[in-house]
């Protein structure tokens, strides 16, 4: 499949998960399976600077900080997938001090009390922060996955992403509510 067709297909999946396309409640995926698919899709719609990778073929690391609400779903979704020359892998961290080379970091709700310290520790690093902590995009998380009316919606703090050297595709930005400075 060509790169453009793959991006369109991924965008269609995101739209369906966002509730922009009809879906049967009986076939709806559990909340964290949908959020795992979002994390995978973010790897297709975010650009990292070259220095974010140890080499041209180094993996894109999707990590979870705190409790892992995805079970094995996130690993299953990214298994065998690539972003260009970069394979995707999943890591688990229990503390922000463990976060080394990571590209997408899901911050679990179990880390709510430590969120300000986590964001400070990650400041300036080329890491896309994602969470479902209420109002997290307003406080500096780059993408907040919000469950509204049984649909996952995105709130994106694009200023926080740009401050970390990341570029979020306009295709993804159009599907989100933009929050934070210059919203």
CATH structural class: Alpha Beta
How does the overall form come out from the CA principal axes?
Answer: globular
What order do the SSEs take from the amino end to the carboxyl end, as H and E? HHEEHEEEHEEEHEHE
The unreliable regions are 1-9, 17-29
Describe the main β-sheet briefly: 8 strands, mixed
- Strand percentage lies at 15-25%
Number of strands: 10
| Tally of helical segments | 6
Number of domains: 1
Rounded radius of gyration (Å): 15 Å
Percentage of residues in helical conformation: 25-40%
Terminal Cα separation, in Å? Answer: 35 Å
The structure class reads alpha/beta
CATH topology: Rossmann fold
- CATH architecture annotation name: 3-Layer(aba) Sandwich
Mean pLDDT: 87
- What is the topology, as strand order, of the major beta sheet? 3-4-2-5-6-7-8-10
Verbal overview:
This protein has helices spanning 3-17, 31-45, 73-78, 115-122, 158-163, 170-173, and strands at 46-47, 60-65, 82-83, 86-93, 104-107, 128-131, 143-148, 151-156, 167-168, 177-178. β7 (143-148) and β8 form a beta hairpin. By secondary structure, it is an alpha/beta fold. The protein has a single domain (3-178), classed as Rossmann fold, CATH 3.40.50. α1 runs antiparallel to α2. The strands form 2 sheets. It has an 8-stranded mixed β-sheet with strand order 3-4-2-5-6-7-8-10. It is built from 6 helices and 10 strands. The longest helix has 15 residues, at 3-17.
